[in-house]
Amino acid sequence: MFRPQKFSLPPLRRSLSARLLLLTIFFVMLAEVLIYAPSVSNFRLTWLNDRLASADLAILALEAAPDENLSTDLKSELLGRVDAFAIVLTRPDRRLLLYTQPPPAVEITVDLRQSSLMSGIGDAFGTLARRGDGVMRVIGESPQNPSMLVEVVLNEAQLRAEMFGYSRNILLLSIVISVFTATLLYLALQWLMVRPMRRITEGITEFSRDPQNAATGVKPSHRDDEIGVAQSVLVEMQDDLRASLKQQERLAALGSAVSKINHDLRGILSTAVLMSDRLSALDSPEVKRISGPLIQSIDRAINLCTRTLNFVRDEGPELHQSRFRLTELIDEVAADLLVLGEGQTAVNGTVTALANRVPNEVVVEADRDQLYRVFANLTRNASQVGAHAIDIKLGPDNSDNKYLVIDVSDDGPGMVKSARDGLFKAFAGSARKGGTGLGLVIVRDVMRAHGGEIELLSSDDSGTVFRLTLPRAD
Length: 474
Description:
The chain has helices at about 15-65, 70-80, 115-130, 155-210, 225-280, 285-310, 325-350, 370-385, 415-420, 440-450, and strands at about 85-90, 95-100, 110, 135-140, 150-155, 320-325, 355, 365, 390-395, 405-410, 455-460, 465-470. Helix 1 (about 15-65) packs antiparallel against helix 2, helix 5 packs antiparallel against helix 6 and helix 8 (about 370-385) runs antiparallel to helix 10 (about 440-450). The strands form 3 sheets. It has a 5-stranded mixed beta sheet. It folds into 3 domains: about 10-180, no CATH class; about 220-315, Orthogonal Bundle (Helix Hairpins), CATH 1.10.287; about 315-470, Heat Shock Protein 90. It is about 55% helix and about 15% strand. It is rod-shaped, with a radius of gyration of 48 Å. It has 10 helices and 12 strands.
C-alpha cells in the first residue's frame, strides 16, 4: 500500500551538502588548532634565540672597547637594539656585563638548553596567558662559541605581543585554508556523492508517488562504485516491484473472473450432483460402482472452486484436519491420474504410471482434500510434461524426527532454467507452454498452512524430484 503523502527534499541549510561543508570547516579548523600549538611554541623559541644572537653581537662591542668601557649612550643604544635591560656573557675565565642601570627583579627564567617540545608548548601558552610587564631572564649558549653562555634580561610583554600577532596571522591563514579546503572538498563531494544521492532520492520520491509509471523512479547509471551498485540494485527492485504490482492486478482480475465462473460452475455441478444421486439410486451394480467416485469427484470440484477463489482473494487455505493413512490418499491420486492418463493416451499416446511406495502404517493428520490437491498437482504436472513414471516414497528422517519427509520423483524431461528461477511464483514458474504456475503456488501455500514445506531437490534430463515435509501426527 503506497501512501499519497508527498515527500520533498530539505532546504539547503538542512541538506547533506550544508552539513558536509560545516563539518569540513570544523575539522580543518581543528587540525589547524592541533598544528598551532607546536607552531606557536616554535615561534617563541625562535624569537628568544634571535634575542640571544642579537645580545651576543651587542656584548662583542663591549669586549672590543678599550678597557671594556663604553659610554652610557652607546650602551643604551646597544641594549635598545636588543630590547633588553641587561646582557651577560659568561666565559670560562670571566664575565662581561652590559647594562645602564640595575635591571628590575627577574620574575621568569627560561633556560633554552633544557627546552623540549612539550615544555615549550606549555611555556608558550603560559606566556600568552600572563598579563602585565613581567621581567624575563633568558639563558642560552652563544651562537658564536657554545662554550660561552649568554643571558638576556628583557620585558616579556614584547614577546607576548609578538606571539599574539603571530596567532592572529595563523588564525586568518587557518580560516582561509579551511574555507578553501572545505570549498574544494564540498565541490568534489557534491559532484561525486551529493548530486547522485539527490537524484536517487528524487527518483525514490517520484517512484513512491506513482510506482506503476515506468518513466518515474531511479535511473540506471554507468558508475561502478558503491553509488552505482546502489542505483543498479534500486532499479532492479523497482522493476521487481512493478512486476509484482502488475501480477497483483492480474490476480485481482483473475479473482473477479473466478468469482463469476465459480457462481455458474457451482450451479452446473449441483445439477451434476442431483443426476449422480439419481444414478446411485438405480439397482444396477455397474452404475453403483461408477456413481460413488463420480460423486466424490464432483464434490472435490466444488471444493476446488471455492478454495481457488479464496486463494485469489489472498485468503489462506482453510484446513479441516483429520487422521488418515497417507497411502490410501496416494492410491486415490493414482486412480485419478489413471483416468487422466486414458484421456492423454487418446491424444498423445503417453501413459503415466504412479508407484506408491509409502508404507501402509504411515498416518498423517492433515486436511485430506487439501493434501490431495498437493499430490494431484505434482503428479498431473509430471504427466502433462511427458513423464512415464512417478515414484512417491518416504525420504530420509530429519534429525529431530518431528517431520515426515516424502519425495515425489518422475522421469520427465526436467524444468527449464526460467521455470526453476520462477518456481512457486504465480504466472512465472510454469514448465509448460500456456501454464500459469498457480498449481505449485497453491501446493506451497497448502504445505505451509500445515506447518510443512516443499522444495525442489533436482530437475534435469533424468527427471524432477520434489521433497515434501509434514509435521508427524501425534
